[in-house]
Design brief:
2 domains; 2 helices; alpha+beta; 120 residues
C-alpha cells in the first residue's frame, strides 16, 4: 500500500523573505477516487529480490558486441583504457554497489536508450 499523500503543496514566497506553504491540488485515481490518507493497494505485488554484486569489469556498460546479431570486428587488438576512465568506472561501480535505487535507475536508463536505438 502506498503512503497516502494525495495532495500537492506549493511554497509561495512572501515579500518579507518568509514563505507560506499552501495545498494547491489533490491527487485522484483515473476513476476519480481521492488517495488522500488511504493510499493505493497495488494490483501486482513484485517481491523483493536479493541483490548480488557483479564482479565483471564491464558490468556498467552495454556494448554493441553484447547485442544479438552484432557485426564482428576483424582487428582483435585490445584497446588500452586510460587511467582516468578506469578511475571513473571504479567510482561509478562503488556508488552503484551502495545505492540500489541508483543502480536500478541506471539500468532503466540503459534499457530505454537501447530500446530507442533498436527502434531506429
Amino acid at each position: 500500500k502506498t503512503f497516502g499523500k494525495g495532495s500537492v503543496q506549493t511554497l509561495v514566497p512572501l515579500p518579507n523573505g518568509a514563505a507560506i506553504k499552501l495545498t494547491t491540488a489533490r491527487y485522484y485515481t483515473p476513476s476519480g477516487r481521492s488517495i488522500q490518507a488511504t493510499g493505493i493497494v497495488p494490483d501486482v505485488i513484485i517481491p523483493r529480490i536479493k541483490v548480488e554484486k557483479v564482479e565483471e569489469d564491464n558490468a556498467l556498460e552495454i556494448h554493441e558486441a553484447d547485442l544479438k546479431g552484432h557485426l564482428d570486428h576483424k582487428d582483435d587488438k585490445p584497446v588500452k583504457a586510460d587511467q582516468s576512465e578506469a578511475e571513473r568506472k571504479a567510482e561509478i561501480k562503488k556508488l552503484l554497489d551502495s545505492d540500489y535505487e541508483l543502480y536500478e535507475a541506471l539500468n532503466l536508463l540503459k534499457s530505454m536508450s537501447l530500446a530507442k536505438k533498436m527502434q531506429e
